[in-house]
Structure formats: structure tokens, C-alpha cells
Design brief:
single chain, alpha/beta, Rossmann fold, 2 domains, 9-stranded mixed β-sheet, two-stranded antiparallel sheet, 9 helices, binds adenosine-5'-triphosphate, binds ribulose-5-phosphate
Length: 334
């Protein structure tokens, strides 16, 4: 950590395992810097270890396998600037290790399965994102990772995903109602019956009416826009690229929706898209493109997943700047 923070800004990153949270966290570190930001993985609040879960048949997604009282107390303490003694869940052994000391930092990110599940924890968050990956894409990503990197068999990966599904639907998915941004990753509409899942349709749902959060928009705020970018300015090989902007109602609340379907052939040309967006919370024209270019090797950099992850990160930075400026202002007033 750099200096002692005046105001700890708390960010929630929610989603199932294998949905791109770690990639997003790397993008946040690029924006905020490692020293400035501390990540708390909520797996550390598992109250049942792997053996106990196996014996009881309770999954890690089930709230009964997690200690929300301790999670709340400790996250609240961090937000209040206090140091905590956080438990550690060891994914190698499946056991709960002795706790570690965590100090407050300017930005504290709580990431994992349940950052928005418990009403008390949720109320502490200053900004949140939920990664909503459709089953088709989730399977493709998980199979790719677990087979290539972890030596798992195709049938085992599929069985693992299916066995998580009931509790996922009961306890994890409903949290998307509470997120400020939901990133939906869906199969493309540009290729009929696509099974490759290389080309993706990605939607960024931005909550309307949150104080200080100004959703990004395409061309004209409040309009509905379908945009096929000019092929001379944005090179896209088959099946091309399609963008959309409009508003929708999500869990009974208004959201602004941005959508990118397709992939970028040439990342430098993303600037063309960026210049047609407003409220991006960039510091200079081209910053979004620059951030993407900085790590073209991150998964999804050539499509809407990377693009919207960067945009969400920029919105989090704006929230941080707004909240700390407000806090500083209040401090001056008293
Ligand atoms: N945008 C993307 N495009 C393509 N593949 C992706 C993308 N994001 C993630 N993946 C794939 O999914 C895998 C999991 O991503 P990541 O590690 O970021 O997820 P996670 O939510 O942190 O998972 P876990 O909680 O299990 O660690 C990556 O190794 C990669 O193979
Ligand atoms: O969904 C998960 C979050 O990452 C894990 O499955 C959960 O934390 C249990 O971990 P493990 O399988 O290593 O016992």
C-alpha cells in the first residue's frame, strides 16, 4: 500500500468461477496500480472446507458454506480504515489456512461468488459489476482452460459445470439484479448456429439513476442505435461487426445497454469506435483504445469482452475519483 487512504473505495466483482474475473482484475490493476488496490477473494470466507462440503453435499456456492457475518464485519472494518485478520481458503489443499493480516487500501476489490449476496455486504459497495456469461460461452471457456491448462477431460468439465448449475441459479445468478454494471457474454448473432464461440455478442448493462454514474452511450443519449461501422475505418473480416445502443428494463429498473457483436481485426482501429462513444470517463481521447492495446494478450482483447471490461474499469476509476473528491470536500467543510 502507498499512503494511508482517507477514504476506502469498495468495488464488488461478482460471477461464477471461470467467467473472466481474474482477467478483469488485471485490467483494474493496470488502471489503479498494484500498490493502490487490494483484492479480497471471497472464497476465503468459505466456512466449510472441501471435505466438509463433500460430506454434507453442500456446494461452495451455497450460502451455508460461507461465513457472511465474518465477511461483513471484516469488509466493514476495512472500509472504516481498520486492519483485519482475514481467513484463507487454500485451493490446493481444500483446507482453511491460518489467517493473514490485510490492511485497508485506497481501493479494495471484493471478488468472487457472493459479493452482492448479503444485503449488509452489498450496502458497503461503492460500485459493482456482475459477469453474466451464457452457458454456451462458459462451457467453451472452461473447457478450453481446464483441458489445456489443468489436464481435465471434456466429460468431467461438462459434469462439473452441470453439477454447479442448480446452486448457481439459486444463489449466484440472482445477484445480477444488484450490480451497477452487468457484462453479458452471449453467442454471436452474426453467424447462424455458431458452435465455435470465438465470435461473441457482448452487452454492457449500465444502471440508470445511480448517483454520479453516467452511463456511456453511442452517438445520441437516449436514442436507440444500430450501427454497422464503416469497413474502411474498422477492418472486420467475416462475420463483420455490429453495435447497438438503447435502453431497457432490467429487474424492474432502467438500464442503458451498449452492445458489440463481432471481433476487431486491428486493435489500433478501436479508436474509431471510441470516438463515437460519449461518457467513457477517459482522461483523453483514445485512452480506452490505449488500455486495450497495452495488453492485447489478455483474453477477449479483440472483442466486446475486453472493450467493455476496460470501459467498466474506467467507470470504477471515475467512481473512485468522485467519491474521494467528495470526501475531501466534506473534510474541508467540517
Ligand atoms: N474474454 C475472454 N475471451 C475468451 N476466453 C476468456 C475470456 N475471459 C476468460 N476467458 C477464458 O476463461 C478462463 C477463466 O478466466 P479467468 O481466470 O479470468 O476467470 P475467473 O472468473 O477468474 O475464474 P476463477 O474464479 O476460476 O479463477 C481463462 O483462462 C480463459 O481461458
Ligand atoms: O467456485 C469456486 C470459487 O472459485 C470454487 O469452486 C470454490 O471456491 C471451491 O474451491 P475448490 O474447488 O478449490 O475446493
Amino acid at each position: 500500500m502507498t499512503t494511508k487512504p482517507e477514504r476506502v473505495v469498495l468495488i464488488g466483482v461478482a460471477g461464477d468461477s471461470g467467467c473472466g474475473k481474474s482477467t478483469f482484475l488485471r485490467r483494474l490493476i493496470d488502471l489503479f496500480g498494484e500498490e493502490f488496490m487490494t483484492v479480497i477473494c471471497l472464497d476465503d470466507y468459505h466456512s466449510l472446507d472441501r471435505k466438509q462440503r463433500k460430506e454434507t453435499g453442500i456446494t461452495a456456492l451455497d450460502p451455508r458454506a460461507n461465513n457472511f457475518d465474518l465477511m461483513y464485519e471484516q469488509i466493514k472494518a476495512l472500509k472504516e480504515g481498520q486492519t483485519i485478520n482475514k481467513p484463507i481458503y487454500n485451493h490446493e489443499t481444500g483446507l482453511i489456512d491460518p489467517p493473514e493480516i490485510v490492511k485497508p487500501n485506497h481501493i479494495v476489490v471484493v471478488e468472487g461468488l457472493h459479493p452482492l449476496y448479503d444485503e449488509r455486504v452489498r450496502s458497503l459497495l461503492d460500485f459493482s459489476v456482475y459477469f453474466d456469461i451464457s452457458d454456451e460461452v462458459k462451457i467453451a471457456w472452461k473447457i478450453q482452460r481446464d483441458m489445456a491448462e489443468r489436464g481435465h477431460r471434456y466429460e468431467d468439465v461438462l459434469a462439473a459445470i452441470n453439477s454447479r448449475k442448480p446452486d448457481f441459479q439459486k444463489y449466484i445468478e440472482p445477484q445480477r439484479e444488484f450490480a451497477d454494471v452487468v457484462l453479458q457474454v452471449l453467442p454471436t448473432n452474426l453467424i447462424k448456429d455458431d458452435t465455435d464461440r470465438k465470435v461473441l455478442r457482448v452487452r454492457m448493462l449500465q444502471r440508470e439513476g445511480k448517483e454520479g454514474f453516467e452511463p456511456a452511450y453511442l452517438f445520441d443519449e437516449g436514442s436507440t442505435i444500430n450501427w454497422t461501422p464503416c469497413g474502411r475505418k474498422l477492418t472486420c473480416s467475416y462475420p463483420g461487426m455490429q453495435l447497438y445502443y438503447g435502453s431497457d428494463v432490467y429487474y424492474g429498473r432502467y438500464v442503458s445497454v451498449l452492445e458489440v457483436d463481432g471481433q476487431f481485426d486491428n486493435l489500433e482501429e478501436v479508436i474509431y469506435i471510441e470516438t463515437h462513444l460519449s461518457n467513457t470517463s477517459t482522461k483523453y481521447q483514445g485512452e480506452l483504445t490505449q488500455l486495450l492495446l497495452q495488453h492485447r494478450e489478455y483474453p477477449g482483447s479483440n472483442n466486446g469482452t475486453g472493450f467493455f471490461q476496460v470501459l467498466t474499469g474506467l467507470k470504477m476509476r471515475a467512481a473512485y475519483e468522485r467519491l474521494t473528491a467528495k470526501e475531501a470536500k466534506l473534510a474541508v467543510q467540517v
